[in-house]
Specification:
single chain; about 625 residues; alpha/beta; about 25% helix; Rossmann fold
């Protein structure tokens, strides 16, 4: 790392201060490096603790403290009872404090690996990060992980706080070794400034006041550095970006678009375009509760009215004609995975970027990132707290900027479509453009003509159930009956397609997702051809069955759950697979070592334990007649 990145401004240069604006920063690092104690020290030394709070802190220190008879300043921040009992920070705690020269909002983020997602939340809005390192332990894996996440999330300024230097006898050699180790690791992370400071948060050395126990250190104290660091937001200097949050239409005479300006400046008369459609218009008014504005800037919540009637909806992005974002349905991004369930490429998730929601799939995991070495590693999935570089595909084109250019329009989250839980946080790197010569070909024979020729409607029958449940047997009988009635059919069987179309896939969760994705697309083509297609697949995951359903028009997808107890399936075991799986000879076997997620709402449920396969097939045919398919 070049020496220009290491700020060591002399104390004389910072004592004057300059009244800079609000600074948002976070503390991070490994467990028990002293993050909460540091913030408690800042609050205590800034004289922002009332007498009743101090009395309560003294009582809590005797009950929960880890500093003997001394006041445990960490308890000022560790507000959750679980945190106090465990001595760790779980949630992100925000605190406000001021000095004569500046105001601060500090986020105390968890150090434990389990709560990395909370740390990322704190970093997403920070201008500066204070990375704490225990002088006795040096640079740890979590130190590297948090540093890398800060880098990904656009934090440009960093304080390397070598804490608990008192427990290392205030030894300069210890400090110099830790700084050298960290600088070697952070060389490629892209921080604009890194400022190393030796300190003891517990005793206040080099936090607010300079320590006479560290005469060899000539740099600033922590608060001196925080007061003068120049991190003034450049959001107003960036191109105008306005994500529409709400179409505001209280009556027939007013139609405005409400939201918060993500970046840039806007004035009445400025030309804008709707990023996705390219439709151009101009700003007519900037409306607020207190009256119209002559100008609005990044961070302002306003309602904009337009001079023309253009199609604008929630999720659209208003931008200048000469500084448009990229609009694409494929892009590459870094992804931090934030849940216990692994990322499965090919599975459909819900993406929120700005105010827009869109179904999205990870089409490829290009590589994972080793947070210790920053090496690129091969992988097929991401586990909790892992970071990867992925290709994404959305169902519709979206507007975005690279995250390094604009944090507001380049950041997104992934949401599980069943649980609504946030499962990942992403940072867009660049768009992936499709080949310009790929277009939809207009066909001379349409779908309705195929249906007329066939004499019946198309449908996709999706048979799902455990291995040995009787899916293939029932599907075969149904096809035989339909064929005898003159219905054009085709049966896609799970075993058969693995001999050709899907011969390259195994049975990992990721491979099962891709297996269903491909079959769903093929089944859709058969329906487009006017055929009744029967798909017999275990398809164990609800998300992929839903993905297949969404490929079809309303009423064309018929889920048939062949509901057979696993004990009956094991007793039948027509292929001898359960016997091998129970012996551990087959990995990832559904029902034994891999889960099966039962359908919650299937069009047909066939309970086969005490029912002949022919009777179950008859029910399926009768249902097609009832629906008017045949």
């Amino acid at each position: 790392m070049s020496e220009t990145l290491v700020q060591t401004a002399p104390a004389a240069a910072v004592e004057t201060g300059n009244g800079r604006g609000l600074l948002r920063f976070l503390t991070c690092g490994s467990v028990d490096d002293g993050k909460s104690t540091l913030i408690g020290r800042l609050l205590y030394d800034s004289k922002l603790i009332f007498e009743d709070q101090l009395a309560s802190l003294e009582r809590d220190s005797k009950r929960h403290g880890t500093t003997g008879d001394d006041i445990d300043l960490a308890l000022l921040v560790d507000g959750l009872e679980a945190e106090r009992q465990q001595g760790i920070t779980i949630d992100v705690a925000y605190r406000f404090f001021t000095t004569p020269n500046r105001s601060f909002i500090v986020a105390d983020t968890p150090g434990h690996e389990q709560y990395t997602r909370n740390m990322a939340t704190g970093a997403s809005n920070a201008d500066l990060a204070v990375i704490l390192i225990d002088a006795r332990k040096g640079v740890l894996t979590q130190t590297r992980r948090h540093s890398y996440i800060c880098s990904l999330l656009g934090v440009k300024h960093l304080v390397l706080a070598v804490n608990k230097i008192d427990l290392a006898d205030y030894d300069q050699a210890v400090f110099d070794r830790i700084v050298a180790d960290y600088m070697a690791f952070a060389r490629t992370l892209g921080f604009e400034t890194i400022t190393p400071i030796p300190m003891s948060a517990r005793f206040g050395d080099n936090v607010y006041t300079r320590s006479d126990k560290l005469p060899w250190f000539t740099g600033p104290t922590l608060i001196q550095h925080l007061e003068v660091i120049d991190v003034e937001s450049t959001a107003a200097a960036k191109p105008f970006r306005f994500p529409v949050q709400w179409v505001n239409r209280p009556n027939l005479d007013f139609r405005g678009f409400s939201g918060t300006i993500a970046s840039g400046v806007v004035r009445p008369g400025d030309k804008v375009v709707v990023a996705a459609s390219g439709r151009e218009t101009a700003i007519e008014r900037i409306v607020t509760y207190d009256g119209d504005l002559a100008e609005a800037r990044a961070g302002d919540a306003v309602t904009l009215t337009l001079k023309d009637e253009v199609d604008v909806a929630r999720g659209d992005l208003l931008v200048p004609p000469a500084a448009r974002p990229e609009v694409a349905d494929q892009f590459a991004a870094h992804l931090l995975w934030m849940t216990d369930e692994p990322l499965l490429p090919g599975r459909s998730y819900l993406m929120r970027i700005g105010t827009q929601y869109s179904p999205v799939k990870v089409t490829a995991l290009k590589h994972k990132i080793d947070v210790d070495t920053l090496e690129h590693l091969a992988g097929r999935t991401l586990a909790l707290n892992e970071i990867g570089f992925c290709n994404f595909s959305t169902s519709t084109p979206i507007a975005f900027d690279p995250y390094n250019d604009n944090r507001e329009t380049g950041a997104f989250i992934l949401i599980d479509r069943y649980t609504n839980a946030t499962v990942g946080a992403g940072m867009v790197s660049f768009g992936l453009r499709r080949a310009a010569n790929i277009h939809r070909q207009s066909l001379l024979v349409g779908r309705e003509e195929r249906e007329t020729l066939n004499g019946h409607k198309p449908a996709g029958l999706w048979f799902t159930g455990l291995s040995g449940s009787g899916k293939s047997t029932i599907a075969n009988l149904v096809e035989r009956e339909l064929h005898d009635r003159g219905v054009r059919t085709f049966l896609l069987d799970g075993d058969n397609v693995r001999h050709g179309l899907n011969r390259d896939l195994g049975f990992s969760d990721a491979d099962r997702v891709e297996n269903v994705r491909r079959v769903g697309e093929v089944a859709k083509l058969f329906v487009e051809a006017g055929v009744v297609v029967l798909c017999s697949f275990i398809s164990p995951f609800k998300a992929e069955r839903r993905m297949a359903r969404e490929l079809f028009a309303e009423g064309e997808f018929i889920e048939v759950f062949v509901d057979t107890p696993i004990d009956d399936c094991i007793a039948r075991d027509p292929k001898g697979l359960y016997a091998k799986a129970l012996k551990g000879e087959i990995a990832n076997f559904t029902g034994v070592s891999s889960p099966y997620e039962r359908p919650e709402i299937a069009e047909l449920v066939l309970e086969t334990a005490n029912t002949e396969a022919s009777a179950s097939a008859r029910r399926v045919v009768d249902d097609l007649i009832r629906r008017g398919t045949i």
